[in-house]
Amino acid sequence: KSVMGFTPVSDRLCMLKVKGNFHNMLFINVYALIEDADDEETDAFYEDLQELCDSTAKYYLVITLGDFNAKLGKEDEYINTIGRHSLHEITSNNGHRLVQFAIENNFKVASTWFPRKNIYKGTWKIPGTNEVNQIDHILVSKRWATGIENVRTFRGACSDLDHYLVGGRLKQKNIHGGKEKE
Predict the structure, then answer these.
(1) Distance in angstroms (rounded) separating the CA atoms of residues 71 and 61
(2) Which has the least CB within 10 A, 34, 37, 107, 177?
(3) CA proximity to 65, closest of 173, 155, 157, 165
């Protein structure tokens, strides 16, 4: 009953509109290109993502999530956007693109905002190794960022994929007063 619409945009983008208790939510799911992909293809992906964000009503709570194939570091200039709790020290090229997208759209990267032990930060296990990278992320409009209570990786979720399940907890707040809903 809560689903207001689903739109597959491309092989790499789709969006889901959901009716919330106090305001509507728009989830944009992404599957970005790998780090070694052609710059023109990556630029086209981010242009499509930007067009999708630009076409969204400003009053929606927008959550952009998925496999960004982006390592975010701990550089001081990005702290206000990504926080201090990334698994990585240095931001990758895809990471720079993701941070730029977040800044331009007034998003906060919630997946690197909460403190965790490093073992619980990894979202993708490199095939054939025991090493993990944090490349799947959840971004939320800064206007609604205080509603995000938690984002974490669920390493034990049963899956045949090399990615771990990433989940978040959002508490909707009534900006006009009244009780909050989870």
Answers:
(1) 25
(2) 177
(3) 165
For the beta sheet containing 107-109, the strands, ordered from the edge strand earlier in sequence to the opposite edge, are: 3-8, 13-18, 25-31, 61-67, 136-141, 107-109
Give the CA distances from residue 96 to residues 62, 63, 90, in Å, rounded to whole numbers and listed in that order.
21, 19, 10
Residue 180: exposed, middle, or buried by beta-carbon count in 10 A (0-12, 13-18, 19+)? Answer: exposed
- Rounded-to-integer distance, Cα 109 and Cα 12, Å: 19
Global pTM reads 0.88
